[in-house]
Amino acid sequence: MKLSLTTGALARVRADLLAVAVPTGGLDKSADLKALDKAAKGALKAAAKLEDFTGKAGESLRVHVSGVSAKQVLLIGVGDAPQKPRDARSLAFRAAQAAAKLGSVAVVLSTDDDDAIRAASEGLRGGAYRYLTYLTGDRLPKKQLEHGTLVVHRKDAAAKAALEAGEILADAIVLARDLVNAPPNDLTPTALADVAKDASTKFGLDFKQWDKKGLEKLGMNLFLAVNRGSAEEPRMVHLVYKPGGNQKTKKVAFVGKGLTFDSGGLCIKPAASMIDMKCDMAGAAVTIGIVLAAARLNLPIEVHALFGATENMTGDSAYRPGDVFKSYEGKTVEIINTDAEGRLVLADVLWHAAKLEPDYLIDHATLTGACMVALGPWTAGLFANDDELARRYLEAADSEGELYWRMPLNDELRESLRSDIADLKHTGDKHGGSITAALFLREFVGKSKWMHLDIAGPAYLERPHGTSPKGGTGFGIATGVRFLERLAAS
Ligand code: BES
Ligand code: MN
Ligand code: ZN
After folding, report:
1. Pocket of ligand 1 (CB under 6 A)
2. Are residues 219 and 107 in the same domain?
3. How far is the CA of 367 from the centre of ligand 3 (A)?
4. Which atom, in ligand 1's list, is nearest to the CA of 259?
5. What's the farthest any 2 CA atoms get from each other in the chain?
6. What global pTM score does this model have?
7. How many domains does the chain have?
8. Are residues 119 and 176 in the same domain?
9. 103, 125, 154 — which closes off a domain?
10. What is the per-residue pLDDT across 316-331, written as a single tens digit (0 to 9) for each?
């Protein structure tokens, strides 16, 4: 979808659907809306009266109009609360969804500061998202939303840059959604690495990958243990974005869990939990999205993105409960439950990333069902060994309207990872499963300032929520990018 900015009278905005935010109290609250209604010969007020639309948050009303350039007007109630950028995103998102079967949509922003424009631009593109790759014939939509316009009061350079930043973010989010939604027979570990390679060529990032032999040479035996039961080759991928010029910048490394399918291995999952397990590479998808957006936004910060991609399967070489492997970092690990595979892959990749000595080391992973039990489907668990990092991240998340909740790294639980025969077991006791998973990861980050984001809930949704669609969401990219921008400016 092409996006643009326009200024001027609402009655003259050309679009199949013109979406406007209406505060409590209705159309009389704004001179712009009054003028629009007048041009539409009072059709808006008449419809609002008939349908009892008063502008309360959650209300919406579609009105066919004549006398104005738009074919339909969508009134969206936004209530009394002062409008934040995230409200602009959700307004634009709803407008794009309402216009899904039309050709063009325009959105009237009630505040048009840069952040609102950026969020609305992201929301328009994100709202038009549908995963169509595997549909054929009549299952394909006849029309797609082709043009989106934001109606603002200014079209200066800053407004245009904000529009473009929103598009860049949305592109990254859409890519992550596509990757998460892709079926695991096609999105194999090698295919995921190829996507990262193509994107890095396109946007000028450095790209490196390791195959099974390469991982053996490094000694990534925990990662390789998970791969043993799979017929598909594993891949570790490392993307680097370095800003131009010679300025000294901060360095942040992101690590992602890239399980293209998690059957649970020999400790096999029941069918009802296995069906969603193509989503288990969402951490890798978010990691790719963040580094691509950082590069396209030319952020003055060095960003590394690493992920470990493999399947967790039950082939006849599959790793077993009771096996012991030596990690890349050096500690030996006794395998307890082969379904706790993510932390094994992450352990080796985290250690590789820690050796790059980044200012911050941040991993995204669909790591534990326990995190969803604790926080529900929409909130990510945030574990950090550095308060400043946690604070900065939570602030960025708040600006973007993504939900994170800080969880404790309780040292008391560390003893549940004690093994009789190896340095560590890789799972803890029955309770506190998302915390013991994080404590296991902490063993492999050295002295890094590190944060682990458990996105098992929000990465992949059973039904749409807010501005997230059903299926892959791209959750985490907006916050990651905002964090990098603020860090660069600090
Ligand atoms: N990929 C799963 C976690 C998951 C569950 C992600 C639901 C998204 C939705 C992970 O590999 C896993 O299986 N974790 C186990 C750990 C347990 C065996 C200690 C879990 O959460 O049950
Ligand atoms: Mn698992
Ligand atoms: Zn998993």
Report:
1. 262, 276, 280, 337, 339-342, 366-370, 427, 433, 456
2. no
3. 6
4. 1
5. 82
6. 0.97
7. 2
8. no
9. 154
10. 999 999 999 999 999 9
